[in-house]
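Predict the 3D structure for this chain.
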Amino acid sequence: MKLKNYIATVLMLPILMCTYAQNAQQQKADNLFNNFAFVQATNAYHKLIDQGISTDYATRQLADSYSYLRNPDSAVIYYDKAIKQNNVPTAYYYNYSQALRGVEDYETSRTLMKQFKDAGGDIEEARYLKDSDFLNAIFNAKKHFTLKDVMFNSKFSDFGAYKHGNKIYFTSARDKGDIKKHINAWDEEPFLNIYAINANSNDTLIGNKAKLKGRVNSVYHDGPLTITKDGKTMYFSRTDFIKNVLGRNGNGISNLKIYKATLVNGKWKNIEELPFNSNHFSNGHPALSEDETKLYFASDRSGGHGGSDIYYVDINNGAFGKPQNLGATVNTSKNEKFPFVNSEGALFFSSDGHPGLGLLDIYGTVADENKNIVSVINLGTPVNSSKDDFSFFMNEDGLSGYFASNRKGGAGSDDIYAFERVSILELEKTKNETDLEIPEDNTNSTAPSNTLKTESIEAVSFSPIYFNFNSASIRNQDKIALDNLVNTMLNVYPNMSIDIESFSDARGTESYNDMLSQKRATNVYNYLLDKGVLASRITSYMGYGEKNLINECNSAKKCTEAQHQENRRTQFVIKMN
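Done. Predicted structure below.
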Protein backbone atom coordinates (compact mmCIF):
# COMPACT_ATOMS: atom_id res chain seq x y z
CA MET A 1 0.00 0.00 0.00
CA LYS A 2 2.79 2.42 0.84
CA LEU A 3 4.50 1.59 -2.43
CA LYS A 4 1.28 2.24 -4.32
CA ASN A 5 0.83 5.64 -2.65
CA TYR A 6 4.49 6.49 -3.34
CA ILE A 7 4.12 5.67 -7.02
CA ALA A 8 0.93 7.76 -7.24
CA THR A 9 2.69 10.68 -5.55
CA VAL A 10 5.64 10.45 -7.92
CA LEU A 11 3.27 10.41 -10.89
CA MET A 12 1.42 13.48 -9.58
CA LEU A 13 4.53 15.60 -8.99
CA PRO A 14 5.19 16.53 -12.68
CA ILE A 15 1.55 17.55 -13.06
CA LEU A 16 1.66 19.70 -9.93
CA MET A 17 4.98 21.23 -10.90
CA CYS A 18 3.66 22.01 -14.40
CA THR A 19 0.50 23.60 -12.96
CA TYR A 20 2.59 25.62 -10.54
CA ALA A 21 4.86 26.81 -13.35
CA GLN A 22 1.86 27.81 -15.47
CA ASN A 23 0.28 29.70 -12.59
CA ALA A 24 3.59 31.42 -11.92
CA GLN A 25 3.88 32.54 -15.55
CA GLN A 26 0.36 33.95 -15.54
CA GLN A 27 0.98 35.65 -12.19
CA LYS A 28 4.13 37.26 -13.58
CA ALA A 29 2.25 38.58 -16.60
CA ASP A 30 -0.56 39.90 -14.39
CA ASN A 31 1.91 41.61 -12.04
CA LEU A 32 3.42 43.43 -15.01
CA PHE A 33 -0.04 44.45 -16.22
CA ASN A 34 -1.18 45.62 -12.77
CA ASN A 35 2.01 47.65 -12.39
CA PHE A 36 1.40 49.38 -15.74
CA ALA A 37 4.42 47.75 -17.40
CA PHE A 38 2.42 47.14 -20.56
CA VAL A 39 5.28 46.53 -22.99
CA GLN A 40 6.62 43.72 -20.82
CA ALA A 41 3.08 42.52 -20.14
CA THR A 42 2.39 42.09 -23.88
CA ASN A 43 5.52 39.94 -24.19
CA ALA A 44 4.46 37.84 -21.21
CA TYR A 45 0.91 37.28 -22.50
CA HIS A 46 2.23 36.40 -25.96
CA LYS A 47 4.39 33.78 -24.29
CA LEU A 48 1.38 32.33 -22.46
CA ILE A 49 -0.55 32.06 -25.71
CA ASP A 50 2.39 30.46 -27.52
CA GLN A 51 2.59 27.82 -24.77
CA GLY A 52 -1.14 27.23 -24.69
CA ILE A 53 -1.49 28.52 -21.12
CA SER A 54 -4.76 30.32 -20.21
CA THR A 55 -5.08 31.37 -23.82
CA ASP A 56 -8.55 32.97 -23.59
CA TYR A 57 -7.59 35.02 -20.56
CA ALA A 58 -4.20 35.96 -22.02
CA THR A 59 -5.86 37.04 -25.28
CA ARG A 60 -8.19 39.43 -23.43
CA GLN A 61 -5.34 40.83 -21.35
CA LEU A 62 -3.21 41.24 -24.47
CA ALA A 63 -5.97 43.22 -26.20
CA ASP A 64 -6.28 45.52 -23.17
CA SER A 65 -2.50 45.95 -22.96
CA TYR A 66 -2.33 47.15 -26.55
CA SER A 67 -5.25 49.47 -25.85
CA TYR A 68 -3.38 51.03 -22.92
CA LEU A 69 -0.34 51.40 -25.18
CA ARG A 70 -2.56 53.41 -27.59
CA ASN A 71 -1.94 50.84 -30.29
CA PRO A 72 -5.36 50.12 -31.85
CA ASP A 73 -3.80 48.39 -34.86
CA SER A 74 -2.67 45.52 -32.62
CA ALA A 75 -5.56 45.79 -30.17
CA VAL A 76 -8.20 45.02 -32.83
CA ILE A 77 -6.52 41.70 -33.65
CA TYR A 78 -6.90 40.41 -30.09
CA TYR A 79 -10.25 42.04 -29.34
CA ASP A 80 -11.58 40.21 -32.39
CA LYS A 81 -10.38 36.92 -30.89
CA ALA A 82 -11.71 37.89 -27.45
CA ILE A 83 -15.32 38.52 -28.48
CA LYS A 84 -15.50 35.08 -30.08
CA GLN A 85 -14.92 33.46 -26.68
CA ASN A 86 -17.77 32.01 -24.66
CA ASN A 87 -19.16 34.32 -21.94
CA VAL A 88 -16.75 37.15 -22.74
CA PRO A 89 -17.38 40.21 -20.51
CA THR A 90 -19.64 42.76 -22.19
CA ALA A 91 -17.02 45.50 -21.91
CA TYR A 92 -14.94 43.82 -24.61
CA TYR A 93 -17.55 44.68 -27.25
CA TYR A 94 -17.19 48.35 -26.31
CA ASN A 95 -13.39 48.21 -26.16
CA TYR A 96 -13.27 46.50 -29.55
CA SER A 97 -15.62 49.11 -31.01
CA GLN A 98 -13.36 51.93 -29.82
CA ALA A 99 -10.22 50.23 -31.13
CA LEU A 100 -11.91 49.82 -34.53
CA ARG A 101 -12.46 53.57 -34.68
CA GLY A 102 -8.72 53.92 -34.11
CA VAL A 103 -8.12 52.04 -37.38
CA GLU A 104 -10.93 53.92 -39.18
CA ASP A 105 -13.23 50.91 -39.48
CA TYR A 106 -16.31 52.90 -38.49
CA GLU A 107 -18.91 50.58 -39.95
CA THR A 108 -17.71 47.55 -38.00
CA SER A 109 -17.30 49.76 -34.95
CA ARG A 110 -21.01 50.62 -35.07
CA THR A 111 -21.84 46.92 -35.39
CA LEU A 112 -19.82 46.14 -32.26
CA MET A 113 -21.40 49.07 -30.41
CA LYS A 114 -24.83 47.63 -31.21
CA GLN A 115 -23.71 44.25 -29.88
CA PHE A 116 -22.49 45.99 -26.74
CA LYS A 117 -25.87 47.69 -26.32
CA ASP A 118 -27.80 44.48 -27.07
CA ALA A 119 -25.73 42.68 -24.42
CA GLY A 120 -26.88 45.20 -21.82
CA GLY A 121 -24.13 47.78 -22.18
CA ASP A 122 -24.88 51.38 -21.24
CA ILE A 123 -24.68 53.68 -24.26
CA GLU A 124 -26.48 56.76 -25.55
CA GLU A 125 -28.67 55.32 -28.29
CA ALA A 126 -28.99 58.70 -30.01
CA ARG A 127 -25.23 58.97 -30.33
CA TYR A 128 -24.99 55.50 -31.83
CA LEU A 129 -27.75 56.23 -34.35
CA LYS A 130 -26.25 59.59 -35.39
CA ASP A 131 -22.68 58.35 -35.79
CA SER A 132 -22.73 57.99 -39.57
CA ASP A 133 -24.28 61.46 -39.96
CA PHE A 134 -21.60 62.87 -37.66
CA LEU A 135 -18.78 61.28 -39.63
CA ASN A 136 -20.21 62.42 -42.96
CA ALA A 137 -20.48 65.97 -41.65
CA ILE A 138 -16.91 65.93 -40.28
CA PHE A 139 -15.31 64.50 -43.40
CA ASN A 140 -17.31 66.70 -45.78
CA ALA A 141 -16.91 69.91 -43.80
CA LYS A 142 -14.62 72.67 -45.00
CA LYS A 143 -11.25 72.51 -43.30
CA HIS A 144 -10.57 74.98 -40.51
CA PHE A 145 -6.83 74.38 -40.32
CA THR A 146 -3.74 73.68 -42.36
CA LEU A 147 -0.91 71.70 -40.78
CA LYS A 148 2.84 71.64 -40.99
CA ASP A 149 5.51 69.57 -39.27
CA VAL A 150 7.77 71.14 -36.69
CA MET A 151 11.52 70.74 -36.68
CA PHE A 152 12.01 69.68 -33.05
CA ASN A 153 10.16 66.33 -32.87
CA SER A 154 12.12 63.27 -31.78
CA LYS A 155 11.60 59.51 -32.11
CA PHE A 156 10.14 59.59 -28.58
CA SER A 157 6.97 61.23 -27.27
CA ASP A 158 6.76 64.99 -27.84
CA PHE A 159 3.69 67.06 -26.95
CA GLY A 160 2.40 70.03 -24.95
CA ALA A 161 3.94 72.77 -27.14
CA TYR A 162 3.28 76.16 -25.54
CA LYS A 163 4.55 79.49 -26.84
CA HIS A 164 5.30 82.30 -24.39
CA GLY A 165 7.23 85.37 -25.47
CA ASN A 166 10.04 84.30 -27.77
CA LYS A 167 10.22 80.74 -26.46
CA ILE A 168 8.42 77.51 -27.23
CA TYR A 169 8.07 75.17 -24.26
CA PHE A 170 7.24 71.52 -24.80
CA THR A 171 7.27 68.15 -23.06
CA SER A 172 9.42 65.31 -24.35
CA ALA A 173 10.70 61.83 -23.50
CA ARG A 174 13.82 62.28 -25.64
CA ASP A 175 16.27 62.09 -22.71
CA LYS A 176 17.28 58.44 -22.25
CA GLY A 177 19.03 59.08 -18.95
CA ASP A 178 21.99 57.18 -17.60
CA ILE A 179 20.36 54.50 -15.46
CA LYS A 180 17.53 52.02 -15.75
CA LYS A 181 15.23 53.90 -13.38
CA HIS A 182 14.89 56.70 -15.95
CA ILE A 183 12.85 54.39 -18.21
CA ASN A 184 9.07 54.47 -17.81
CA ALA A 185 7.75 50.92 -17.55
CA TRP A 186 4.38 51.81 -19.14
CA ASP A 187 5.75 52.18 -22.68
CA GLU A 188 9.49 51.77 -22.04
CA GLU A 189 10.20 55.33 -23.10
CA PRO A 190 12.28 57.70 -20.94
CA PHE A 191 10.45 59.84 -18.39
CA LEU A 192 9.16 63.20 -19.61
CA ASN A 193 10.98 66.50 -19.15
CA ILE A 194 10.16 70.08 -20.09
CA TYR A 195 12.24 71.79 -22.78
CA ALA A 196 12.43 75.39 -23.98
CA ILE A 197 13.75 76.58 -27.34
CA ASN A 198 13.87 79.84 -29.23
CA ALA A 199 10.66 80.28 -31.21
CA ASN A 200 12.61 81.15 -34.34
CA SER A 201 15.04 78.26 -34.05
CA ASN A 202 15.47 75.87 -36.96
CA ASP A 203 17.59 73.48 -34.91
CA THR A 204 16.45 69.88 -35.26
CA LEU A 205 18.79 68.47 -32.60
CA ILE A 206 17.26 69.47 -29.29
CA GLY A 207 19.11 67.86 -26.37
CA ASN A 208 19.94 68.38 -22.72
CA LYS A 209 20.99 72.00 -23.25
CA ALA A 210 17.35 72.86 -24.03
CA LYS A 211 16.03 71.35 -20.80
CA LEU A 212 14.25 73.93 -18.68
CA LYS A 213 16.68 75.65 -16.34
CA GLY A 214 16.02 75.26 -12.63
CA ARG A 215 14.24 72.73 -10.43
CA VAL A 216 11.17 71.83 -12.50
CA ASN A 217 12.55 68.72 -14.20
CA SER A 218 12.90 65.66 -11.98
CA VAL A 219 13.79 62.00 -12.51
CA TYR A 220 10.10 61.22 -13.13
CA HIS A 221 7.43 62.72 -15.44
CA ASP A 222 7.35 66.53 -15.75
CA GLY A 223 4.98 68.54 -17.97
CA PRO A 224 2.94 69.91 -19.60
CA LEU A 225 2.76 73.50 -18.32
CA THR A 226 1.20 76.96 -18.41
CA ILE A 227 2.82 80.31 -17.60
CA THR A 228 1.38 83.60 -16.35
CA LYS A 229 1.45 86.55 -18.74
CA ASP A 230 4.16 88.31 -16.74
CA GLY A 231 6.35 85.22 -17.21
CA LYS A 232 7.09 84.88 -13.49
CA THR A 233 4.92 81.91 -12.45
CA MET A 234 4.63 78.46 -13.98
CA TYR A 235 2.09 75.72 -13.24
CA PHE A 236 3.09 72.25 -14.38
CA SER A 237 2.23 68.56 -14.07
CA ARG A 238 4.61 66.16 -12.38
CA THR A 239 4.58 62.67 -10.96
CA ASP A 240 4.04 62.96 -7.18
CA PHE A 241 7.68 63.81 -6.43
CA ILE A 242 8.99 66.68 -4.31
CA LYS A 243 12.03 67.15 -2.09
CA ASN A 244 13.43 63.89 -3.50
CA VAL A 245 10.50 61.87 -2.12
CA LEU A 246 8.24 59.84 -4.44
CA GLY A 247 4.69 59.82 -3.10
CA ARG A 248 2.44 56.78 -3.44
CA ASN A 249 -1.17 55.93 -2.65
CA GLY A 250 -2.31 52.90 -0.67
CA ASN A 251 -1.81 50.65 -3.70
CA GLY A 252 1.75 51.80 -4.26
CA ILE A 253 0.81 53.96 -7.26
CA SER A 254 2.30 57.42 -7.80
CA ASN A 255 -0.34 59.81 -9.10
CA LEU A 256 0.06 63.02 -11.06
CA LYS A 257 0.05 66.37 -9.25
CA ILE A 258 0.17 70.06 -10.17
CA TYR A 259 3.03 72.20 -8.92
CA LYS A 260 3.93 75.88 -9.06
CA ALA A 261 7.36 77.35 -9.79
CA THR A 262 8.67 80.93 -9.86
CA LEU A 263 11.30 82.43 -12.14
CA VAL A 264 14.41 83.56 -10.26
CA ASN A 265 17.34 84.96 -12.23
CA GLY A 266 16.36 83.03 -15.34
CA LYS A 267 15.79 79.70 -13.54
CA TRP A 268 12.57 78.07 -12.36
CA LYS A 269 12.76 77.50 -8.61
CA ASN A 270 10.70 77.45 -5.39
CA ILE A 271 8.66 74.39 -6.35
CA GLU A 272 5.37 74.25 -4.44
CA GLU A 273 2.63 71.63 -4.50
CA LEU A 274 -0.86 73.07 -5.01
CA PRO A 275 -3.24 72.54 -2.07
CA PHE A 276 -5.97 70.65 -3.95
CA ASN A 277 -3.67 67.72 -4.87
CA SER A 278 -4.02 64.32 -3.26
CA ASN A 279 -2.17 61.02 -3.11
CA HIS A 280 -5.45 59.25 -3.93
CA PHE A 281 -6.13 60.68 -7.41
CA SER A 282 -4.38 62.56 -10.18
CA ASN A 283 -4.46 66.26 -11.09
CA GLY A 284 -2.68 67.37 -14.24
CA HIS A 285 -2.55 69.38 -17.47
CA PRO A 286 -2.94 72.87 -15.95
CA ALA A 287 -4.22 75.79 -18.06
CA LEU A 288 -4.86 79.41 -17.05
CA SER A 289 -7.93 81.39 -18.07
CA GLU A 290 -7.32 84.47 -20.20
CA ASP A 291 -7.64 86.77 -17.17
CA GLU A 292 -5.64 84.37 -14.94
CA THR A 293 -8.41 84.17 -12.34
CA LYS A 294 -9.01 80.45 -12.97
CA LEU A 295 -6.75 77.44 -13.29
CA TYR A 296 -8.23 74.59 -15.36
CA PHE A 297 -6.95 71.02 -15.07
CA ALA A 298 -7.83 67.36 -15.60
CA SER A 299 -8.51 65.05 -12.67
CA ASP A 300 -9.79 61.53 -12.04
CA ARG A 301 -10.96 62.34 -8.52
CA SER A 302 -14.15 60.70 -7.25
CA GLY A 303 -17.47 62.44 -7.80
CA GLY A 304 -16.84 63.24 -11.46
CA HIS A 305 -18.67 62.08 -14.57
CA GLY A 306 -16.18 59.45 -15.69
CA GLY A 307 -12.55 58.45 -15.97
CA SER A 308 -11.06 61.96 -15.91
CA ASP A 309 -12.91 65.27 -16.05
CA ILE A 310 -12.05 68.93 -16.59
CA TYR A 311 -12.13 71.03 -13.40
CA TYR A 312 -11.15 74.56 -12.46
CA VAL A 313 -10.22 76.43 -9.30
CA ASP A 314 -10.59 80.16 -8.72
CA ILE A 315 -7.38 82.06 -8.02
CA ASN A 316 -7.74 85.01 -5.64
CA ASN A 317 -4.61 86.87 -4.49
CA GLY A 318 -2.57 83.68 -4.76
CA ALA A 319 -5.14 81.54 -2.91
CA PHE A 320 -6.87 78.62 -4.63
CA GLY A 321 -10.56 77.89 -4.32
CA LYS A 322 -12.32 74.54 -4.21
CA PRO A 323 -12.14 72.49 -7.44
CA GLN A 324 -15.31 72.85 -9.55
CA ASN A 325 -16.35 70.27 -12.14
CA LEU A 326 -17.18 71.87 -15.52
CA GLY A 327 -20.31 69.76 -15.82
CA ALA A 328 -21.92 67.39 -18.28
CA THR A 329 -21.72 69.64 -21.35
CA VAL A 330 -17.94 69.18 -21.33
CA ASN A 331 -17.38 66.03 -19.26
CA THR A 332 -18.55 62.55 -20.20
CA SER A 333 -18.43 59.06 -18.68
CA LYS A 334 -15.04 58.58 -20.39
CA ASN A 335 -11.94 60.82 -20.35
CA GLU A 336 -11.52 64.56 -20.80
CA LYS A 337 -7.96 65.90 -20.65
CA PHE A 338 -5.58 68.70 -21.73
CA PRO A 339 -7.68 71.85 -21.26
CA PHE A 340 -6.56 75.10 -22.87
CA VAL A 341 -8.17 78.57 -22.88
CA ASN A 342 -7.41 80.92 -25.78
CA SER A 343 -7.15 84.72 -25.70
CA GLU A 344 -10.89 85.03 -26.39
CA GLY A 345 -11.78 82.86 -23.40
CA ALA A 346 -12.81 79.78 -25.40
CA LEU A 347 -11.98 76.44 -23.79
CA PHE A 348 -10.44 73.61 -25.82
CA PHE A 349 -9.83 70.07 -24.57
CA SER A 350 -9.33 66.46 -25.64
CA SER A 351 -11.82 63.66 -25.08
CA ASP A 352 -12.57 60.08 -26.01
CA GLY A 353 -16.15 60.39 -24.73
CA HIS A 354 -17.70 62.88 -27.15
CA PRO A 355 -18.48 61.85 -30.76
CA GLY A 356 -15.12 61.66 -32.48
CA LEU A 357 -13.01 60.09 -35.18
CA GLY A 358 -11.07 57.62 -33.06
CA LEU A 359 -9.23 57.77 -29.77
CA LEU A 360 -8.71 61.24 -28.24
CA ASP A 361 -10.13 64.09 -30.35
CA ILE A 362 -9.77 67.84 -29.78
CA TYR A 363 -12.88 69.91 -29.12
CA GLY A 364 -13.73 73.59 -28.82
CA THR A 365 -16.53 75.04 -26.71
CA VAL A 366 -19.16 77.70 -27.29
CA ALA A 367 -20.30 79.91 -24.40
CA ASP A 368 -23.25 82.26 -24.00
CA GLU A 369 -23.09 85.92 -22.99
CA ASN A 370 -22.79 84.83 -19.35
CA LYS A 371 -19.73 82.71 -20.21
CA ASN A 372 -21.60 79.48 -19.56
CA ILE A 373 -20.50 76.68 -21.89
CA VAL A 374 -23.51 75.63 -23.96
CA SER A 375 -21.99 73.49 -26.71
CA VAL A 376 -18.98 71.37 -27.64
CA ILE A 377 -17.62 71.27 -31.21
CA ASN A 378 -15.32 68.65 -32.72
CA LEU A 379 -12.51 70.53 -34.51
CA GLY A 380 -12.65 68.05 -37.39
CA THR A 381 -9.89 67.11 -39.78
CA PRO A 382 -6.98 67.65 -40.21
CA VAL A 383 -6.51 68.46 -36.52
CA ASN A 384 -8.33 65.31 -35.48
CA SER A 385 -7.57 61.83 -36.76
CA SER A 386 -8.44 58.25 -35.87
CA LYS A 387 -5.57 58.22 -33.34
CA ASP A 388 -4.86 60.34 -30.22
CA ASP A 389 -5.02 64.10 -30.82
CA PHE A 390 -4.37 66.29 -27.80
CA SER A 391 -2.53 69.17 -26.05
CA PHE A 392 -4.06 71.92 -28.19
CA PHE A 393 -2.53 75.39 -27.89
CA MET A 394 -3.47 78.58 -29.77
CA ASN A 395 -1.32 81.68 -30.01
CA GLU A 396 -2.72 85.04 -28.95
CA ASP A 397 -3.45 85.96 -32.56
CA GLY A 398 -6.05 83.18 -32.68
CA LEU A 399 -4.71 82.08 -36.05
CA SER A 400 -1.92 79.64 -35.26
CA GLY A 401 -0.74 77.19 -32.64
CA TYR A 402 0.21 73.60 -31.90
CA PHE A 403 -1.24 70.24 -30.97
CA ALA A 404 0.11 66.69 -30.65
CA SER A 405 -0.88 63.40 -32.23
CA ASN A 406 0.34 59.82 -32.49
CA ARG A 407 -1.07 59.49 -36.01
CA LYS A 408 0.91 57.66 -38.64
CA GLY A 409 3.62 59.48 -40.55
CA GLY A 410 5.22 61.23 -37.60
CA ALA A 411 8.75 61.10 -36.29
CA GLY A 412 7.96 59.29 -33.04
CA SER A 413 5.24 57.95 -30.78
CA ASP A 414 3.64 61.37 -30.19
CA ASP A 415 4.56 64.32 -32.39
CA ILE A 416 3.90 68.04 -32.29
CA TYR A 417 2.17 69.63 -35.28
CA ALA A 418 1.86 73.34 -36.05
CA PHE A 419 -1.43 74.64 -37.41
CA GLU A 420 -2.73 77.78 -39.03
CA ARG A 421 -6.41 78.60 -39.04
CA VAL A 422 -8.18 79.13 -42.31
CA SER A 423 -11.60 80.65 -42.59
CA ILE A 424 -14.46 78.30 -43.24
CA LEU A 425 -15.81 81.18 -45.25
CA GLU A 426 -15.06 81.47 -48.94
CA LEU A 427 -13.81 85.00 -49.54
CA GLU A 428 -13.52 86.31 -53.08
CA LYS A 429 -12.00 89.77 -52.89
CA THR A 430 -12.35 92.10 -55.84
CA LYS A 431 -10.29 95.17 -56.61
CA ASN A 432 -13.12 97.54 -57.47
CA GLU A 433 -16.88 97.78 -57.60
CA THR A 434 -17.08 97.26 -61.35
CA ASP A 435 -15.96 93.66 -60.87
CA LEU A 436 -19.28 92.82 -59.15
CA GLU A 437 -22.48 91.76 -60.84
CA ILE A 438 -25.06 94.02 -59.16
CA PRO A 439 -28.79 93.54 -59.84
CA GLU A 440 -30.36 96.35 -61.85
CA ASP A 441 -32.84 97.18 -59.12
CA ASN A 442 -31.46 95.73 -55.90
CA THR A 443 -33.76 97.72 -53.67
CA ASN A 444 -36.93 96.20 -55.16
CA SER A 445 -35.68 92.64 -55.49
CA THR A 446 -37.98 90.14 -53.77
CA ALA A 447 -35.20 87.54 -53.52
CA PRO A 448 -31.96 88.29 -51.69
CA SER A 449 -28.70 89.00 -53.46
CA ASN A 450 -25.69 86.89 -52.56
CA THR A 451 -23.51 89.92 -53.24
CA LEU A 452 -22.38 92.13 -50.38
CA LYS A 453 -21.21 95.67 -51.19
CA THR A 454 -18.75 97.40 -48.60
CA GLU A 455 -14.76 100.46 -48.13
CA SER A 456 -13.27 96.77 -49.31
CA ILE A 457 -15.83 94.74 -51.46
CA GLU A 458 -16.26 91.03 -50.75
CA ALA A 459 -18.56 88.30 -51.93
CA VAL A 460 -18.88 85.90 -48.98
CA SER A 461 -20.74 82.62 -48.71
CA PHE A 462 -21.23 79.92 -46.07
CA SER A 463 -22.42 76.41 -46.87
CA PRO A 464 -26.23 76.21 -46.56
CA ILE A 465 -28.15 73.76 -44.42
CA TYR A 466 -31.13 71.77 -45.70
CA PHE A 467 -34.56 70.67 -44.47
CA ASN A 468 -36.75 67.62 -44.88
CA PHE A 469 -39.95 67.89 -46.92
CA ASN A 470 -42.71 69.92 -45.22
CA SER A 471 -40.53 70.41 -42.13
CA ALA A 472 -38.93 73.37 -40.39
CA SER A 473 -36.99 71.23 -37.90
CA ILE A 474 -33.20 71.51 -37.96
CA ARG A 475 -31.73 68.12 -38.85
CA ASN A 476 -29.14 66.58 -36.53
CA GLN A 477 -26.47 66.50 -39.24
CA ASP A 478 -26.98 70.23 -39.85
CA LYS A 479 -26.52 71.15 -36.19
CA ILE A 480 -22.81 70.48 -36.60
CA ALA A 481 -22.64 73.01 -39.44
CA LEU A 482 -24.55 75.56 -37.34
CA ASP A 483 -22.24 74.92 -34.39
CA ASN A 484 -19.30 75.61 -36.68
CA LEU A 485 -20.96 78.88 -37.71
CA VAL A 486 -21.40 79.77 -34.03
CA ASN A 487 -17.75 79.00 -33.35
CA THR A 488 -16.73 81.18 -36.30
CA MET A 489 -18.82 84.12 -35.08
CA LEU A 490 -17.75 83.86 -31.45
CA ASN A 491 -14.13 82.82 -31.74
CA VAL A 492 -12.84 83.64 -35.23
CA TYR A 493 -14.66 86.75 -36.46
CA PRO A 494 -16.13 88.59 -33.44
CA ASN A 495 -17.15 91.51 -35.71
CA MET A 496 -19.00 89.34 -38.21
CA SER A 497 -22.79 89.59 -38.57
CA ILE A 498 -25.16 87.59 -40.76
CA ASP A 499 -28.48 87.59 -42.57
CA ILE A 500 -30.44 84.33 -42.46
CA GLU A 501 -32.31 83.51 -45.68
CA SER A 502 -34.61 80.47 -45.88
CA PHE A 503 -36.35 78.89 -48.84
CA SER A 504 -38.76 76.11 -49.77
CA ASP A 505 -39.18 73.90 -52.81
CA ALA A 506 -41.91 74.68 -55.34
CA ARG A 507 -44.47 72.16 -54.10
CA GLY A 508 -47.44 73.56 -52.18
CA THR A 509 -49.09 76.96 -52.39
CA GLU A 510 -47.02 80.11 -52.51
CA SER A 511 -48.48 81.44 -49.24
CA TYR A 512 -47.80 78.14 -47.44
CA ASN A 513 -44.23 78.05 -48.72
CA ASP A 514 -43.67 81.63 -47.54
CA MET A 515 -44.90 80.64 -44.08
CA LEU A 516 -42.85 77.42 -43.99
CA SER A 517 -39.63 79.12 -45.06
CA GLN A 518 -40.14 81.82 -42.43
CA LYS A 519 -40.46 79.12 -39.76
CA ARG A 520 -37.19 77.66 -41.00
CA ALA A 521 -35.47 81.02 -40.74
CA THR A 522 -36.90 81.59 -37.25
CA ASN A 523 -35.78 78.15 -36.03
CA VAL A 524 -32.23 78.77 -37.26
CA TYR A 525 -32.27 82.22 -35.63
CA ASN A 526 -33.37 80.77 -32.29
CA TYR A 527 -30.79 77.98 -32.51
CA LEU A 528 -27.97 80.50 -32.96
CA LEU A 529 -29.25 82.62 -30.06
CA ASP A 530 -29.40 79.55 -27.81
CA LYS A 531 -25.75 78.84 -28.66
CA GLY A 532 -24.62 82.28 -27.55
CA VAL A 533 -24.79 84.46 -30.69
CA LEU A 534 -26.10 87.94 -29.85
CA ALA A 535 -29.34 88.96 -31.56
CA SER A 536 -27.68 92.19 -32.70
CA ARG A 537 -25.32 90.16 -34.89
CA ILE A 538 -28.19 88.61 -36.87
CA THR A 539 -29.41 91.58 -38.89
CA SER A 540 -32.33 89.75 -40.50
CA TYR A 541 -33.94 86.32 -40.68
CA MET A 542 -36.36 86.05 -43.55
CA GLY A 543 -38.27 83.36 -45.40
CA TYR A 544 -38.54 83.75 -49.17
CA GLY A 545 -40.62 80.69 -49.98
CA GLU A 546 -40.09 79.38 -53.53
CA LYS A 547 -38.92 82.71 -54.95
CA ASN A 548 -35.29 81.80 -55.50
CA LEU A 549 -35.08 78.21 -56.80
CA ILE A 550 -31.54 77.12 -57.59
CA ASN A 551 -32.60 74.60 -60.25
CA GLU A 552 -35.48 74.12 -62.69
CA CYS A 553 -37.71 72.26 -60.24
CA ASN A 554 -40.75 74.55 -60.40
CA SER A 555 -44.34 73.40 -59.98
CA ALA A 556 -44.57 72.44 -63.67
CA LYS A 557 -41.50 70.22 -63.79
CA LYS A 558 -41.19 66.72 -62.37
CA CYS A 559 -38.03 66.39 -60.24
CA THR A 560 -36.44 63.85 -57.95
CA GLU A 561 -36.58 64.26 -54.19
CA ALA A 562 -32.86 65.03 -54.17
CA GLN A 563 -33.42 67.89 -56.62
CA HIS A 564 -36.26 69.31 -54.50
CA GLN A 565 -33.97 68.98 -51.45
CA GLU A 566 -31.51 71.44 -53.02
CA ASN A 567 -34.17 74.17 -52.79
CA ARG A 568 -35.23 73.45 -49.18
CA ARG A 569 -32.35 75.38 -47.69
CA THR A 570 -31.25 78.11 -45.34
CA GLN A 571 -28.26 80.15 -46.46
CA PHE A 572 -26.22 82.86 -44.78
CA VAL A 573 -25.09 86.23 -46.05
CA ILE A 574 -21.96 87.18 -44.16
CA LYS A 575 -21.15 90.78 -43.27
CA MET A 576 -17.61 91.57 -42.17
CA ASN A 577 -18.10 94.73 -40.09
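The two ends are 104 Å apart (CA to CA).
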